[in-house]
Amino acid sequence: MLLFYIDPGTGSMLFSIVIGLVTMLYFVGKAVILKLKFVLSGGRAVENHNRYSFVIYSESERYWNVFKPIVEEFEKRQIPVVYYTSSEKDPVFSQTYSFITREFIGEGNKAFTRLNFLEADICLMTTPGLDVYQLKRSRGVSHYSHVLHAVDDATGYRLFGLDYFDSVLLSGEYQKAHVRLLEEKRGIHQKELEVVGCPYLDELQKKVASLPVEEDHRFTVLVAPSWGSNGILSKYGSKLLDPLLETGFQIIVRPHPQTVLSEKNILEKLQKRYEGRNNLEWDFNRENLVTLSRSDIMISDFSGVIFDFTFLFDRPFMYVNADFDARPYDAWDIEEKPWKFRVLPEIGIELREENFSNIKEVLLAACKDTQLTENRWKAKDIAWQHREHSGRTIVDFLVKKQQETVSSKGKTN
Fold this sequence. Notes:
413 residues; alpha/beta; Rossmann fold; 2 domains; seven-stranded parallel sheet; 15 helices; 15% strand
């Protein structure tokens, strides 16, 4: 019996080729059918009942806080929207809407196949990498729009993450410059860059006021790393956690969701090491607000949760400069340091490995620094514009683009 092995990279490439050929044949065949219908109808316009005005795609229930303000604004305006999701647990299914059609379309290649045959005026998503890997531009979609899901640099995605979108919705003006530099360096078309605010922070801000007050509060330190070789758990692990536990403070470790999948061995080793330690908690909950609200200070690396914590709760943080390797990211092609790394020394305190031994004093000093407070306010104004109004500004933009699309099609018919 012959056995054939196809590595993941080759498999992905083959999938892309096959899907590309199938979708091309699909749309060519559809065009022929529509042409025949047009002729047989005596030259009357033929309506395409499978085409949607607005489609939102969410690859995970984690992005519900991004899409909820947008969906609710569409619902408020009584504008029909199709909401595709790759999560059967997506909170959208528990909501009561009259104008939002919801559908689970599967995960991975199954979802991408469905999206590659999509016919819509506007498709909005948080998923990067359009037309780079399996997720291809459908010939039936007029406009692809990407909404950022963090107050971070737009160049923080893996290589070519935003290159082939028609528009990118930003949280602040500061994100524009580096996108334009990438477009110029790579010789690609200029996208529409619209500053709309940050919908997920708007949504979380609403929830903050209703959070319970913790009784018998203990001074709490939240360790919230990203994942990968540059993340805190991978780089330092027990070197950092050991002295933290010796402070007597309550320590919460909230690993990145990808850590559970990609760094399971590191995680299990640390959990076993600290079995029975009463002042250590592991937090794997999908929602992080309760944990953030309990924490007096955060230690992180380059994770975007830094900005969630400091902007929502106005509390200090410390960051471990783990020699971030930008090579897999768009930021590698930009000579200037990303805004995130430029602003970190202004709004937080770098925690160096040589400070691990006296970490208790370092943490307490950070909590008393008034200059950090002022700098946090300034950074918040830069990174989180249109606060409380992102749903409205996003829908305003998408409706405008859809009207332009319909008008443009009308002129070419």
